[in-house]
Amino acid sequence: MFVDANGDEANYSSFWKRERSVVESASQTKKSDEKRAEVSVQATEAVNVEVQTSDLLAVDLKLPETVPASLEKFLSYAEPLVSKELQNNVNSHAFDGYDVSWVDELRSVTCLHTLQNTALDEQLQCTGLAWNCVGSVIAIVYGRYDHQDWCTHQGALCTWNVDRQKLDHNKPDFTLETPMCVTSVAFHPTEPNIVAGGYFNGEVVVWNLGADNSEYLVSTSEENSHREPVTQVQWIKDPKSRIIAKYELVSVSGDGKILRWHVAHNRQTLKLLNGY
Fold first, then answer.
1. How far apart are CA 14 and CA 96, in angstroms?
2. Are 99 and 122 in contact (CB under 8 A)?
3. 56-83, pLDDT tens digit by residue?
């Protein structure tokens, strides 16, 4: 049988751990012999000087008695040219009806035109607009934003020439019906009749508004187009073009892709250069 018992304590010294001793010490740096001195400087004298220009009326201005030959030669050459331009300005009608205002006018924003196509479906909305390179024609594309699934609506591309004397604000000068909603539009930077647009289904289209049939010039193929509506189209300058500026087309879509296209006018498709 086992019973409880209390035995004496037993201590065993470590074979690998040695005892360490601690020594306390203190030190102090030697007293520095550096000397400090403070010096203050104050100006004791101030000088004020005043300068005033002389009266110009008292100066006697005299022309040189002899005219330099170089000045006479210059005036003989420049006087006929200046007189000719002044005479042209007198006979010009460029500023007819323009009144010079010597008082600064308050520059406020005013509405010049309110354009709408009353012949279109009232449910269609303006989804984009762009000015051509001349600055006289504005293109407006129409579509809808409340799509639940596939687009089954017809869109439109309308243009107005705001410089026309008989401008009809409710009827565009040109109307092109599209098979689906147009979501973006951009004019060519140098060709006023070339305009690019993007469809709801992701297709990119380029139109030639100066053509007789008013049909599209080129369009993307289904395998190379976007998978979501095109949110923006933009013409950019080809970095490889040197003398004659050439432009490429860039499209952005809701699918997260940026595609760069080469427009070949002799083909019916856009060539995809690369994408990001």
1. 115
2. no
3. 566 666 777 787 888 888 999 999 999 9
